Amino acid sequence: MARVLVVGAGLTGSVCAALLRREASRPLQLSVWDQAEDSGGRMSTTESPHNPHCTADLGAQYITCTPHYAKVHQSFYDELLAHGVLKPLTSPVKGMVVKDGDMNFVAPQGVSSIVKHYLQESGAEVYFKHCVTQINLRNEKWEVSRETGSPEQFDLVVLTMPAPQILQLQGDIKNLISERQRQQLESVSYSCRYALGLFYEAGLKIDVPWAGQYITSNPCIRFISIDNKKRNIESSNIGLSLVIHTTVSFGVTYLEHSTEDVKELIFRQLEDILPDLPQPVGIKCQRWRYSQVTNAAANCPGQMTLHHKPFLVCGGDGFTQSNFDGCVTSAICVLEAVKSLI
Question: Other CB atoms closer than 10 Å to residue 303's CB: what's the count?
Fold first, then answer.
């Protein structure tokens, strides 16, 4: 039985795992490792410390499907809609630019439920707090080391973490990446931003006519979402959750500052937009060092194969674009690259 490792439990990694399981012509022992404490990656949903039913999407807010991808990825959208993982976005988002034919969807259980759906479909063994540090060739297998625990060997490895983290890996992989591939990986660039999740006690209402709003006149805040209103799951028993995304320029300026300092700066700006907000019962400040890809790897559509025997391949939005369809495209490209081996 072939041992397969997918590194990264974000959207690309989870779709990769699901496709590998569906398309495999022989039994696979499939593992997914992630350095975080939960799945989702940049499709992250966090819970209120006081009520697990009160959640906030700190990464992606909604899914936009263009007419092109409505056809190309129809089976993916149909599946997620049939399972209730996605529903049409019907709540008003002020300042949203909608192009002809585009459809917008929300995840009623939070965007991380999309990732969790694919991980469940994959049947993979998912391990958190597994931070990969080294990849070495051992007897025609990949020996993968992590920060804690013993190294493990795999027949096939798929890396779906951001490009800078691939370049930080130690071991034989450093010599296996060609000079051209290194340049391609180094050319991948990302925007940076912060997200603030605020959780309130049940009963609070914010009297505004929108569920989300794009802000153009503030140097710090770019987007605000009343998250349960955005997902149409308002309930008198569940507290309100508020998400604030900063501008990219603010994220770059304060990237290395403490989250405590950043939190205070965001709060001060928020008072101008939503004055008289009561004190939240829970706060989560998320630094997105690799928020969205601003420059994908050149001449490397969908994936990058680093080694053939045994197979080592990279995927993720660094080879496409930072949205649902970009990640699905990359996962499909990874599958095509390894199909003959599974």
Answer: 28
